Amino acid sequence: MYRRGDDYDEVEDDSDDDVGIGIRMNGSCRKYTPIPQDEEELYPVLPGDKDSPDPETALNEARMDLGFTPPKKQSRNILEKTFYRKRKTKPKVNRSYLIKRSLEKCRDYLPDSCECTTQCLKNFFCRIFPFIKIMQGYSLLYDFPSDLVAGLTVGIMHIPQGMAYALLTQLPPVYGLYTSFYPVLTYFLFGTSRHVSVGTFAVISLMVGAVVDKGHVAYQKLELLHVEAMAANLTSDHPMLNTTFLDGKNHLEKLEEIKVSYAMSVTFAVGALQMILGFLRLGFVTTFLSDPLISGFTTGAAVHVFSSQIKSAFGIAVGRYSGPLKLVYAYRDFFSNLHNANFVTMTATIVAICALIAIKEGINNNKSIKSKLKIPIPIELLVIVGGTVISFYLHLNKEFNVEIVGEVPRGLPPLNVEQLRFVPDLIGESFAICFTAFAISFAMAKILADKHNYEVDANQELLAYGISNMIGSMFSSFCCSGSLSRSMVQDNVGGKTQVTSLVSSLLVIIVLVSLGPVFETLPNCILAAIIIVSLKGLFLQFKELRRLWKVSKVDFCVWIVVFLSTVLLDVDLGLLVGLIFNLIPVLLRTQTPYTSLLGNVEGTDVYADISLHKQAKEIPGIKIFRFESALYYGNIQHFRKRLIKDTGLDPKALKQLKQAKAEADMAKQHKEICMATKTAWNDEPCNHSDTDQQPDTEDEREVDPYAIVLDGSTIQYIDSVTVRVLKEIVQEFAAVDVEVFLGECKAAVRGMLDKSGFYKYVPRRQVCATIHHAVRIAQRSHVLTPDQEFHALRKKAVSVDTIGSDYVMAPESSFVNLELLTSNNSSEDDSDDRRKDIS
C-alpha cells in the first residue's frame, strides 16, 4: 500500500485486496495512502445518509474517474475511510528475530577475542598448573643444586615430624609419612608458593585428632551397646557391630579402622570446602582471622599439643577426655598417677630433649656457627636413629615396658574410598580446620613471597590445598598444611622452587618402600620429645603480649580471650569464640565511632576538630558535626543521639521552647494591654509580676544555632534505613527553624540519596560539595530568612554605604534581597557583631 506523497502505480496490485485505500487529492497530482488492515484504530463511526449510494459502487466509480481499473476485491469501505483518521501505533517487535540477530553478532566477534592459539592454551595451563611458569626459567646448573640440598634437609625433617605428628591424630606413625608424600606432590603441581613446605603440622594434626576422638567415643558407645546385646543374647544389625568385641584382635582392628575413617573423612571434607572457596574466589575470607587471633589460637593449641604428649613422655596412663575442661581432667589424672611413671621412659625423654635443645640452640640457631654450616644438623633424625638402635638392642619394650611404634607396613597404601563414609557427618568440624590450615599456610607463604619478590594467589592456594587434601585422603593421608619450621629451614638452606618438595618426597618414599620396618622398635617417648621441642616457636608467641599491650588494648584482649577459650574449652570451640570476639571490636567501632564538632581555621576553608586543634574556632550559629564511620541500620540511632548531644540541639526540646516562647510573648502582649488600659478598666486584675525577665541587650545576646552541617567526608556508604532517618532528622530540625546541610558526601552516598527519593523531601541545595560551601549556603540562607529581625537588618544595610561592607542593600522593590559577602577591609570583631545582629 502507499502513503501520501508516493506515486501510485496504475498496474493492478493484488496486495491491496485485504486493505482499504484512502483517496487524497493534492492539486493536479493524485496521491494515494494505503492503510494496513492490522494497524487500524478507528474513531466512532459517523452515521451515513440512507439515500447515499452503495459504498462499493461509489469506490469503483471514483477509481474509474481516475482512469484505472479498481481491484477485484475490496475489504474496506472507501466512503467510511473518508470519515476516519488513522492513528499511528508502535510497530510490533519480533523478539525471536532480535535474539537470533544478537547471537549472530556474538558469533561474529567471539572468535576474535577467544581464538584458540598456542599462547591462549599456554596461559590457561599456566593458571591451572603454576609450576609450568615457575619451571620456565629453571636452571639445572644454578637452581637444582640448591634445591637438592634443601630437599634432602627438609626430607630428613619430614620423617621424624611426620611420625611424631601422626600420634597427635591418634593414628599410627606411618600415616604421617603418607601425609609427607602425597599432598607434597600434589601441591608441587597446583601451588603458587616456591618456599612453603607442605605436610604435617602440629596444630592441624591436633585438630584432626580431636575429630578422631569423637569417632573413638562413638565407637565405645556402640561397643557398650553390643556388649549389652550379647549379654541379653540379642543380635544387632548395626554395620559397626557385626564383629565380636570380645575378641581382642578384632576389637583393635575395628577401632583403628574407625579412627582412620574419621581422619580421612574430615580431611576429604576440608579439601572439598577449600576447593569450593577457591572456585568461588573467596580467598579473602581469611582476612577475618587477624594476627592476634591466629597467634593466641596457635599458642593455645600448643598447650593442647604439649599436654597430649606428657603421657608418652612419662609413660603414664591418662584417661581420654573430650569437650570443655578436658585438659583439667587430663592433668588431674596425670598428677594422680605420677608415682607410676616409667623411669626408663622419663630418662629417654629427658636425654632426647637435652640433645635436641643443645644442637638446635647451640649450633643450628647460633648465628656465629650457623653461617659456617651449609646445612643444619639433622638432629631429629639422629635422635630417632639412636633411639631405634638402643631400643632394638636393649629390648626396651620387653624388659622395661617402654611403648614403641610397632608395626610399620612396607610400601604405599592403595586407593581406598570406603574410608570416606563419614564425610556427611563431619562437615561441621571441617570448617575450623579449613580456615585454620589455610590461614597459617597462606600467612607463611606471603611472608616468604614478599622476601623473594614474587606473588602468591590466595584463590589458587585454596585450590592447591583442597586438591591435595582430597587426593591425599583417598591414599590414607590426613589433613596437610604448611609447616612453619620446615618452611624456614627450606628458605635458610637455599631452596629456590618446589623442586625441593620432589626431592623430599623421593626420600620419604624410599623410607616407606624399604626402611619402614626399621622404625618398629622406635620408642614413642622419642617422638614425644621431638614434638615438645618443636613447640618452642609457638610458646615464644607469649612475647607478643607486651607489644600488643602497648600498641592496642583491644588486640591484647583478643589474644587473651582466644588463648584462654582454646585452652579451657577445646580447639574448635576456642577458634569459634575467637572469631566472635574478634568481630565484636569491629562492630563496636562501627556502631559507636568517634564523633566531634568541627571549627574553621581562621583565614582558610579548612575545618578541624575543635577539641584537638586550638586554631579551629566554631562558627557562631552553625554546628558542624562529624561522624567517623559508615552509616547503616546498626549505628544510625547512635548517630542521632550523638548529633543531639554534641550539638546541644534537641528538636523536641527546641519545639517545646519555641512554644513556651510564643506563650511568653502572648503573655507579654497581654501585660502591655493591661498596663495600657489599667486606668480605663480598674476592676480587671493584672496578675503579672514586675520581675519578668527583660530581654538581653544586643551586645549580651548570643547567636542561636540556626544550621547544622553534617561532614560526609568520613561516611563511606549509607543504606535505605539511613536515608529514612536522615530525612526525619532534616524535617525535625526544619520544624524548629534549624536547617541541616550535608557537606562533602561521597559519590556512593549521593547516589544512594538520589535513588532513595531523598530529594523529594529535602532540597538539593542542602547537599553541598564541600563543608565550606555548606557553611556559606547556611549563612546566606539565614540572612535571607524573613523573620522578625529582617527589618532591623534592612535598616542596618541601608546605613552602610561603603563598597567593602558585609551587607549590600538591593535596589528598592517589593522584596529586598540581601547577600552575604566577604570583605578584607572589615575586622574580625565587626564580623562577629554583624553575626550577632543577624541572629
UniProtKB/TrEMBL annotation:
Chain segments annotated as coiled-coil in the UniProt record: none
Compositional bias annotation for Acidic residues: 7-19
CDD domains xref list: STAS_SulP_like_sulfate_transporter (cd07042)
STAS domain residues: 612-778
The entry's keywords: Membrane, Transmembrane, Transmembrane helix
NCBIfam families the UniProt entry points to: sulP
Identification of the protein by name: STAS domain-containing protein
Organism per entry: Patella caerulea (Rayed Mediterranean limpet)
